Amino acid sequence: MFDKKGSIVFDKKAVSEDALMESALEAGADDVRDQETEWEVITDPLAFEAVKRAIDQKGWKYLEARVGMIPQNTIKLEAGKAEQMLKLMEKLEDNDDVQNLYANFDISDEVMEKLSQ
């Protein structure tokens, strides 16, 4: 259900898609994904440091850079199920025995806004 991948996330205002795609793919990245307000560079874990180093040399500031588990498929959750899932995730994160938490759900921005009120 998950693949171990590197992920480097940029605010769309920080760098253009063309420049990011050219540099990242040239350095060994697998893909550059459009995530609404962000660009996400996906790499093989072995290529992660080389891609990150190439990006650092350009001087671009990223929001997050990590190697973790990326879902192969996502499941859209509506308001009721989304609220239950977020409560479960919160409880799991609060558990001292849990070090990392990965999930494959997708909650729309509209539902997230309603739940945050």
Name a few traits of the molecule.
Alpha-Beta Plaits, 117 residues, four-stranded antiparallel beta sheet, 4 helices, globular, single chain, alpha+beta, 2 domains, two-stranded parallel sheet
Characterise this structure.
- The strands form two sheets. Strands 2-3-1-4 form a four-stranded antiparallel beta sheet, with helices on one face. Strands 5-6 form a two-stranded parallel sheet.
- It folds into two domains: 2-71, 2-Layer Sandwich (Alpha-Beta Plaits), CATH 3.30.70.980; 75-116, no CATH class.
- Helix 1 packs across helix 2.
- Strand 5 (75-77), helix 3 (79-94) and strand 6 (105-107) form a beta-alpha-beta unit.
- The chain has helices spanning 17-27, 48-58, 79-94, 109-116; strands spanning 2-11, 31-35, 38-43, 64-71, 75-77, 105-107.
- The model has no long low-confidence stretch (mean pLDDT 93).
- The chain is 39% helix and 30% strand.
Short description:
With 117 residues, the chain is α+β, with helices and mostly antiparallel strands. The chain is 39% helix and 30% strand. The chain has helices at residues 17-27, 48-58, 79-94, 109-116; strands at 2-11, 31-35, 38-43, 64-71, 75-77, 105-107.
- How much is the average pLDDT? 93
Radius of gyration: 16 Å
CATH topology of the largest domain: Alpha-Beta Plaits
Q: What top-tier CATH class of the largest domain fits best?
A: Alpha Beta
Q: In which order are the strands of the major sheet placed? A: 2-3-1-4
Order of helical and strand elements: EHEEHEEHEH
User: How many β-strand runs?
Assistant: 6
Major sheet attributes: 4 strands, antiparallel
State the CATH superfamily name of the largest domain. Answer: YebC, transcriptional regulation domain
Number of domains: 2
Query: What is the overall silhouette?
Result: globular
Helix and strand content put the structural class at alpha+beta
**Which residue ranges are poorly predicted, with pLDDT under 50 across at least 5 consecutive positions?**
none
Strand content: 25-35%
Amino-to-carboxy terminus distance: 32 Å
